[in-house]
Amino acid sequence: MRSKIMNSRQRVMGAVNRTGYDRIPIKHEGTPEINHMIMSHFGLKNMEQLLRVVGDDFRYVAPIYCGPELRSFPDGSVEGYWGERYKYAQFEGGKYLESCYKPFADINSLDQLDRSHFPSADWFDYSTIAQQIDALDGRFAVCAGTAGDTDFINGISRARGMEEVLMDLIDENPVYLEIMEARFKFYYQMHERILQAGKGKIDFMHIGEDLGNQMGPMINMDIFEKHFAPKYQKYFDMVHRYGARVMQHMCGCVEFFLPRLIELGLDVYDVVQPTTAETDIEKLNNKFGERLIFCGSICVQTTLAWGTPGDVEREVDRRLNLFSKGGLFLGPTHAIQSGSPLENVLAMYRRAGSLCERIDESILSIQASETAVDQIDMSKLF
After folding, report:
1. Per residue in 247-256, pLDDT tens?
2. Residue 3 lies in a domain
């Protein structure tokens, strides 16, 4: 028997506290192509309408960028916070922003390092955060930050190069370590100011770190303990002081790091990529479910992309049984990729009980919301 009808925030907190809910909470993420496909199917006009239709229970608030102009260049590339540049790579069925200029590549002495590319938390206006939260009227779980925040491996690689970053961590290259420290300081200070402006009403702070690849960890535990753990401890403690929880996006197989991340204070493991036996959602729940909330877990590389609607429904049913009282925010393992069948995407949300298929004027009249984050937003990359 289901609980009484809840609003989105009540539903999410029921999952966090494992006290039950009327339906499992939903966290949607799709590439622009997927979002536009859903919008076209239902005749929707903006992301807020889309989030209502799929039943997404989370909304994001963000400070307003007011720093130095982020330049555009003749080749079509645009500048990121760290001086790196992004350009769309075209592929059949869509396009993806990729780093095309790396200002810190091949810099191997501190004398060569151009610190003018280091951003500042002062580049943002936090004065509208409280207003953004108030506009949500307590109906949704409130998040801030993105999966690209902190992100010391993947984020720095966009301005330096992935191979170089992985070698830096082994060699303890002082250039990388200074960039890492600057990146930590930037996001720590920006997030603390967001939390201060939020006055205790922000539920989750979102950060990211791709600690795993398809088969296992990207780095060893010695490197993690020396260069990552102290920063995470400081950041997690800061977020908890403001009454919020940490949601950390981690692509790849990261089961190896979970016991230590839990000790450091991680609250939500975001996306849960089930590509090995160790990362099967049931095994993860058996090992860590009493101490960790999971998010995602419906695979964009297999089930959603190549399965049938029946396959999707079976995966959703499995999770509904495993998490009948809470512990999971259901959604894809990453942005649902271009080419994934619409019927699979809809099957996921329909089976979860969140899909609104009766589109009436109450939905079509909803205006675009500043808190409805569109995946086109390039700040996810910076």
Report:
1. 999 999 999 9
2. no
